[in-house]
Each structure stands twice: as structure tokens, then as C-alpha cells.
């Protein structure tokens, strides 16, 4: 059941990312990089997500954190979900529609993150990098902030889609997960510890 929830939640994360991309008002730091790569290389955002996932997994492995099966599956499914959703979602023209897309995308991404973390199947590529940095004595917050800032700066340098949605994601994810994660974990029967699990969720 936990693996099924994990898989469905991963698909949800991809859908949420796609809604935010189409809303074009800013995405999460990781997706700023993905959209920048997509524009620079002339590839899809889903393919860009695969590339960044592979690089992150290789980096974490070189630092002593070996990717799990769930890590690989999650990266593949997110890329497929983004590619599929972007192929069928309309591109809104009016600002009200764009705001609605971003708001819905945020809600879906947060729901997906909640499902992924509460299922407790395995960490994602970026979370493995964070854990590898923590193995070297770097605090959770510094490791996560360093990763997010690096992704954001690289994405901006490549022309990624940063904006108000990026700020809302950064500021809102922590408070939202603080409410949703304990309840979801209780239903799933998993034991989550703060702040590690919240940090691992992508804050």
C-alpha cells in the first residue's frame, strides 16, 4: 500500500509541476533549473527532470549515498508525469487563469510531497545529496538551503521560470507540510521525525 501511495504521489508531483509551468508565474527552485535546461537544450521539461535526477544520483553515489530502487523509479515517473501532463494541459492566457493554474499546481505538489514522504519508501535524488552533505557534518538547514540556492542560481542563469510561484513554494511548503505530514503519517502507520523528514520533502 505504501509503495502504491508513493507511486501515485510521485505522479501527482509531476502534474503539479506541470500546472505551475503552464501558469508561468514561477516554479520550485529545482524546476527553475529544469525549465532553464529545457529552454537551453531544446528538450522537454520532463526530460530535463530526468537529467537533473541522474546528475543528483551520480553525485550522491560519489559521496557515499547509494540511490535506492524507489529513487530511480521516482525520478522516471516524475519525468513521465511532467511530459504527459504538459502534452495535454492548455496554456492559459489571462492572469486569473494563470494564477489558478499555479495555485492548483502548488496544492497538488504539496499533496504529492505529503504522500511521498509519509509513505516512507525512499529518498529522492536531491534528498540523497542533502543526506550525503549531512554525513559530512553540515546541518540540515545549511545543506538544504545550499542545494536550493545552487539550483535556483543555475536555473536563473539558464533563463528558468522563477517568479512569485517560486517564492510561495519556498515560504509555504514548510507550514503546509507541518500540518499535512503528521496526519498522513498517522494514517500510513509510518514514523516521521522532524525536521529531517520535512527537509527531505523539498524545503
Structural class: mainly alpha
Overall number of strands? 0
The number of distinct helices, counting runs of at least 4 residues, comes to 9
Largest sheet: none
| Count of all domains | 1
Strand content: under 5%
Q: Helical proportion?
A: over 70%
Which descriptor suits the 3D outline? Answer: globular
SSE sequence, one letter per element: HHHHHHHHH
Terminus-to-terminus distance? 26 Å
What does this structure look like?
The chain is mostly helical and 203 residues long. The chain has one domain (2-200). Helices cover 77% and strands 0% of the residues. The chain has helices at residues 2-23, 29-41, 45-62, 69-88, 95-119, 125-135, 140-157, 164-188, 196-200. Helix 1 (2-23) crosses helix 4 (69-88). The longest helix is centred in the middle third of the chain and has 25 residues, at 95-119. The two termini are 26 Å apart. The model has no long low-confidence stretch (mean pLDDT 87).
Summary?
With 203 residues, the chain is an all-alpha fold. It has helices at residues 2-23, 29-41, 45-62, 69-88, 95-119, 125-135, 140-157, 164-188, 196-200.
Amino acid at each position: 500500500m505504501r509503495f502504491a501511495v508513493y507511486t501515485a504521489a510521485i505522479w501527482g508531483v509531476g502534474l503539479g509541476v506541470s500546472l505551475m509551468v503552464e501558469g508561468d508565474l514561477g516554479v520550485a527552485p529545482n524546476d527553475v533549473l529544469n525549465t532553464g535546461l529545457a529552454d537551453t537544450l531544446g528538450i522537454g521539461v520532463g526530460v530535463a527532470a530526468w537529467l537533473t535526477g541522474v546528475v543528483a544520483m551520480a553525485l550522491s553515489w560519489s559521496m557515499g549515498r547509494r540511490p535506492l530502487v524507489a529513487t530511480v523509479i521516482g525520478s522516471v515517473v516524475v519525468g513521465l508525469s511532467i511530459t504527459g501532463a504538459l502534452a495535454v494541459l492548455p496554456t492559459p492566457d489571462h492572469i486569473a487563469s494563470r494564477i489558478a493554474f499555479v495555485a492548483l499546481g502548488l496544492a497538488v505538489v504539496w499533496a504529492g510531497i505529503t504522500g511521498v514522504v509519509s509513505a516512507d519508501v525512499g529518498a529522492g535524488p536531491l534528498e540523497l545529496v542533502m543526506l550525503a552533505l549531512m554525513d559530512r557534518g553540515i546541518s540540515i538547514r545549511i545543506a538544504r538551503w545550499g542545494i536550493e540556492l545552487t539550483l535556483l542560481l543555475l536555473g536563473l542563469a539558464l533563463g528558468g521560470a522563477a517568479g512569485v510561484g517560486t517564492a510561495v513554494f519556498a515560504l509555504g511548503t514548510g507550514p503546509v507540510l507541518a500540518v499535512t505530514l503528521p496526519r498522513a503519517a498517522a494514517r500510513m502507520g509510518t514514523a516521521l521525525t522532524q525536521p529531517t523528514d520535512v527537509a527531505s520533502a523539498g524545503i
